[in-house]
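protein under study:
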Amino acid sequence: MENLQVNQYLPPLTNTTGGVKARCIAKYKDRLLVVPEDDPTKLMISARYPYHTRFNALDGGGYIYIDPDSGGSNRGG
């Protein structure tokens, strides 16, 4: 019987990118603005170019909660 080789080039079965899941992304100058699907009162702001894909404060990004007590959503409709 021949040895079967495993195909090492198959795509992953789950999303392994670790990125923010959002329905839309807005661009303001050289930053990205994102409202995550799992927290609709949170507005995430990316760092400036060339770190525009990073949202942590160490690189210049951050987040702010917009009217979290309203019971509504920040998603545009």
